[in-house]
Amino acid sequence: MSLEVLSKAKVCDGWHKQYSHSSSRLNCDMRFAIFLPPNATAETPVPVLYWLSGLTCTDENFMQKAGAFAKAAELGIAIVAPDTSPRGEDVADDEGYDLGKGAGFYLNATQAPWSAHYHMYDYIVDELPALIEQHFPVTKVKSISGHSMGGHGALTIGLKNQNSYRAISAFSPISNPINCPWGQKAFTHYLGSNKELWLEYDASELLKKQASSLPILVDQGDADGFLTEQLKPENLLEAAKQSNTDITLRMQPGYDHSYYFIQSFINEHLTFHSKYLFA
Questions:
Q1: Is the pTM of this model over 0.90?
Q2: I want to staple 17 with a disulfide (CB 3.0 to 4.6 A). Which of 8, 27, 84, 264 is the partner?
Q3: What span, in angstroms and rounded, lies between the C-alpha atoms of 157 and 164?
Q4: Catalytic residue among 119, 224, 273, 274
């Protein structure tokens, strides 16, 4: 599978590069960004942290705003940030920011017109890692993290593929989407009326059924304007208790939903992942 280089820049003695490629799972051209630490070579490949961003974001938000490169370079971890949805003129969209382009919700849509392109779950789980491992000096060892809608994606993908990842972390995740407006809107359009299928993309419901063998770290700001209506971390914590899963959920006083919050704790998340990526 061929890649087109869109941009590259040296940073923290490593490289940030942005690429486009044709995706067979999404039936469109896709974009992703990768940070390669300075020690990443064919002779010394490095593990990967996959970062999933939130509503309205692209591959650029985390890479430009999170301030993660210095710590990732120090630890020797590559970071891959995909786009948040399929893109293109023939890709279905919606006027709302929380549906369609920029709002893929990391699931496989079953309802028209979304089912033609919106297979972000398959893309993140299978297609993108295969592409990264083919073209870059990385190992098959990987972890997953994300923010908001991407936190939902990191949790659900990690929980459903526990043999594929070493650890999961999230900032401000949509923890119980079947019980919040963002999730209900997206699931109704993408998945239809079969609410049994909805449960397969809800981290709280997944944790109720099966304990996680993976370590999980979640940070949530208590000044987040979406906390009560949309995010519901207390439901995730209760589900973890039901399955006897050990989860670290930290309520951070005064922090909101922005990348200022992510900047403040991203180094701790990278250090958390490094313990398991190099174990």
A1: yes
A2: 8
A3: 10
A4: 224
